[in-house]
Design goal:
Blueprint lengths: L4 E5 L6 E5 L4 E5 L2 H7 L4 E7 L3 E5 L4 E5 L4 E6 L5 E6 L5 E5 L13 E3 L12
Length: about 120
């Protein structure tokens, strides 16, 4: 079986990445930090092994923001696209934003995290 590859880029195209699958899980995170970072109801991520992640171009354009004691959020410093979230408590994993992937991620999103802060304005499923 061919190894799954995920690819993505930021809005301006200066940063591009690839990551080897498989995806451990994909999730919608409704924590207030993800809401602020994404300007949306949630951050949506695919969790993969960090060893299989690499920048194809533009690594020098990525800035990390320490949003908590252990959380780091990577984004393009030119266009602001959120590219990933990672935890220093799990250095072998990285969570890539689904909205940056090309082609579009077609796997399932199995988890919803921090549903206690899920916005009330979201439509009911």
């Amino acid at each position: 079986m061919e190894e799954q590859k995920l690819r993505g880029r930021c809005l301006c195209g200066l940063v591009a990445y690839e990551a080897a699958g498989p995806v451990s899980h994909a999730s919608h995170c409704y924590c207030t930090m993800c809401q602020k970072q994404h300007g949306a109801a949630a951050g949506t991520y695919a969790n993969v092994a960090r060893a299989g992640f690499r920048f194809e171009r533009g690594e020098e354009m990525v800035t990390e923001y320490a949003s908590s004691e252990h959380g780091r959020r990577g984004f393009c410093r030119v266009c602001g696209s959120t590219l990933y979230w990672r935890s220093e408590q799990a250095p072998d994993r990285i969570a890539l934003t689904l909205g940056t992937m090309e082609p579009e991620y077609d796997g399932p999103v199995e988890r919803e995290l921090h549903t206690d802060t899920k916005p009330k304005w979201l439509p009911v499923r």
